[in-house]
# Entry
Amino acid sequence: MRIQIVSPDKQDLQKLQTLYKLVAIQGNGIIRNEKEITQDYIKGFMEKSLKDGLMLLAKKEDSSIIGEIHAYPSDIFAFRHILSDLTIVVHPDYQGRGVGRKLFGQFLNAVKEHHRHICRIELYVRAHNHKVHAFYKSLGFADEGHHENKILTGELTFETPIHMAWFNPCFDLHKWSKQNFGHSEKKITSKKRLTNHKPCFRNQPFNSFASCARTTTRPGLTRTGHAMKVPKKTITT
# Structure
């Protein structure tokens, strides 16, 4: 099976709605139920992801969509360095076949290479879903605590999700400043001011792209640790 990891376009809206409905019916995946998967919902996260965040699709050779991942920052200034509420869906017929890992590999590499103004990526996983929790940990996400009874299911029972975060080893505060203030407004230029900030990521020198290039091999990286380019990547499985 050959899979292309690509950026979306407006023509993908209907196919994405169909995919999301299939995953919602399956249960134990995305939070929304089938009735909440409207065109307005799909259009909304597509517009936000393409404007400020990141969105990737997994397509087969016949252009059918079998997976999608997206996240985007908040409108609140204090959280503009975060891609929050990351969502990933994989067609039920292709789950467990590496599609999600390929999507995530490309997504995280794109953040490291092209979104260095992003410091954190955040998501939730149900505490009882040990397999998915272990999958996220294998990608480098860290637990940040349980949110007791945050989810109320359609069966009127409570579920507890775990909040997790991934830290961008290529985060650059200058890039963040440029992204949020532009060329002619406020910029962060003081070296002292930079060193007064705690590193966004763990066990990496702050503001160092060189250290990013030396990152050990992870899904979607070359042997030297350099991120592969998005948007189009054909993968054979």
Summary: The longest strand covers residues 82-90. DSSP finds seven helices and ten strands in the chain. The mean pLDDT is 83.
